[in-house]
Amino acid sequence: AIERTLSIIKPDATKRNLTGKINAKFEDAGLRIVAQKRIWLSPAQAGQFYIVHKDRPFYGELVDFMASGPVVVQVLEGENAIAKNREVMGATNPAQADEGTIRKEFALSVGENSVHGSDAPETAKEEIAFYFSGLELVG
Ligand code: CMP
């Protein structure tokens, strides 16, 4: 089915000027960028976005990192977009990511791992609504 998923290009990647290279990976995989904006999250906003991880030991570090510089939030659309995006990203930990994936090529560590992608249809819906209004989604 045609799906939409929420993607974030993280501060480690925007800092190294990798937005275009990462977007090319999405587009080469058949994902269409139907919404996109570059924003700088406050710690409160980053903390809210990642609230499901609030009890994890890395939560504070994750929030500080996500608020440390600009991010590019985007909506990717395509056939099986949620799973396809996860394939293109590669494993969360770049040490375990397959050749050719974004995280294998660009991620610095499990924390500074260049991209985020929704993990399921329900979270995709919530995460898209966190950043975008319906008017901003241009199929
Ligand atoms: P993401 O897909 O954005 O979802 C939660 C994030 O937490 C994950 O990517 C990682 O960047 C981060 N994360 C997971 N495990 C660790 C860890 N051990 N240390 C720091 N950050 C982590």
TrEMBL record:
SUPFAM superfamilies cross-referenced by the UniProt entry: Nucleoside diphosphate kinase, NDK (SSF54919)
Domain Nucleoside diphosphate kinase-like: 2-139
Keywords: ATP-binding, Cytoplasm, Kinase, Magnesium, Metal-binding, Nucleotide metabolism, Nucleotide-binding, Phosphoprotein, Transferase
Cofactor: Mg(2+)
Residues at the catalytic site: 116 (pros-phosphohistidine intermediate)
GO MF annotations, alphabetized: nucleoside diphosphate kinase activity
Domain of life: Bacteria
EC number: 2.7.4.6
Sequence positions that bind ATP: 10, 58, 86, 92, 103, 113
Keyword Ribonucleoprotein among record annotations: no
Family matches, as Pfam families: NDK (PF00334)
InterPro entries: NDK-like_dom, NDK-like_dom_sf, Nucleoside_diP_kinase, Nucleoside_diP_kinase_AS
Chief site of localization: cytoplasm
Assembly mode: Homotetramer.
Task performed by this protein: Major role in the synthesis of nucleoside triphosphates other than ATP. The ATP gamma phosphate is transferred to the NDP beta phosphate via a ping-pong mechanism, using a phosphorylated active-site intermediate.
NCBIfam families per record: PRK00668.1
Protein family per UniProt: Belongs to the NDK family.
Protein name according to UniProt: Nucleoside diphosphate kinase
